[in-house]
Design a protein that fits this description.
alpha/beta, Rossmann fold, seven-stranded parallel sheet, two-stranded antiparallel sheet, 7 helices, 9 strands, 14% strand, globular, binds NADP nicotinamide-adenine-dinucleotide phosphate
Length: 259
């Protein structure tokens, strides 16, 4: 058995939305265990600054991209290929939400959310299939991780209608892709975060104090931490996680499992 079950030396990863929030936690985790990591952000300066900061941990490459359209995903895959060549790990993390009362929930909240959360992850998978297939072996497959949400599994009363539907869609897409890509030595899993303190959940905190009603709703009574999400993604990307595919893995302090 390998001594380094959870090391990722010589692996190349793409983490969309890796400049901030959960994507940054994941990118830093992958860098710490030896991977080369490319990150995206919509703003070039933010992307470059984040990559520069993370270079202290390993090789981090900024690839600015607005993933609102499938065309942008095709273009990002081309730039990634040109810059890094190989792709062992794809983490589809970039995500968009929209909250609003049902009576006035706008139609425009559907295509934009579905595009960033479901369609462009699919397009990135399709475009990077040659690299992922080339990187994977029966003993050490290539890995695709889609970041889903508890909102796509259980009713969280967030009034984020298109978001919850998009996350349920990426969960199902994960299972479909896992079945289709197993023979190409690529595993596909979804990580299902509960509540983490990022920009997306900023409205649930006031000056860093978390809404006590939210905390009382989480079985372990705390928000997620960087090591919670990074550790799970590292496991799924490592030798230790090579036999896991088609799973939807909650990292949520018990919201799904204990519900
Ligand atoms: N925080 C939570 O509690 C929680 C819970 C469940 C699931 N999630 C999921 O975790 C993922 C990361 O969210 P987060 O919590 O880290 O929120 P966040 O801080 O708001 O980050 C959202 C990320 O998505 C990127 N993004 C948004 N729209 C984009 C677009 N059109 N093109 C390219 N990138 C885009 C952002 O990149 P920029 O740098 O360009 O802004 C940013 O990196 C999402 O898929 C989200 O649904 C989060």
């Amino acid at each position: 058995m390998s001594q380094d079950l959870f090391r990722l030396d010589n692996k190349v990863a793409l983490v969309t939305g890796g400049a901030q929030g959960l994507g940054r936690m994941i990118a830093e985790g992958l860098l710490r265990v030896g991977a080369t990591v490319a990150i995206t952000s919509r703003k070039a300066d933010i992307c470059e600054k984040a990559a520069e900061e993370m270079t202290a941990l390993g090789r981090c490459v900024p690839l600015p991209a607005d993933l609102s359209t499938p065309e942008a995903a095709v273009e990002l895959a081309a730039r990634f290929r040109e810059t890094l060549g190989a792709c062992h790990i794809l983490v589809n993390n970039a995500g968009k939400t929209w909250g609003g009362a049902i009576d006035s929930f706008p139609d425009k909240a559907w295509p934009s959310v579905m595009s960033v959360n479901v369609q462009t992850p699919f397009t990135l998978v399709r475009e990077l299939l040659p690299e992922l297939s080339a990187a994977g072996t029966p003993d050490d497959p290539a890995r695709i991780i889609n970041i889903g949400s508890v909102a796509g599994v259980k009713t969280e009363k967030l009034q984020a209608y298109s978001y919850a539907a998009s996350k349920a869609a990426i969960h199902m897409l994960t299972r479909d892709l896992a079945g289709d890509l197993a023979a190409r030595n690529i595993t596909v899993n979804a990580v299902i975060p509960g509540y983490f303190p990022t920009k997306m959940t900023a409205h649930m905190r006031e000056e860093d104090a978390v809404d006590p009603t939210l905390l009382s709703h989480i079985p372990v009574k705390r928000l997620g931490r960087p090591e919670d999400i990074a550790g799970t993604v590292i496991f799924l990307c490592s030798r230790g996680g090579g036999y896991v595919t088609g799973t939807l893995l909650p990292v949520d302090g018990g919201l799904v499992g204990c519900g």
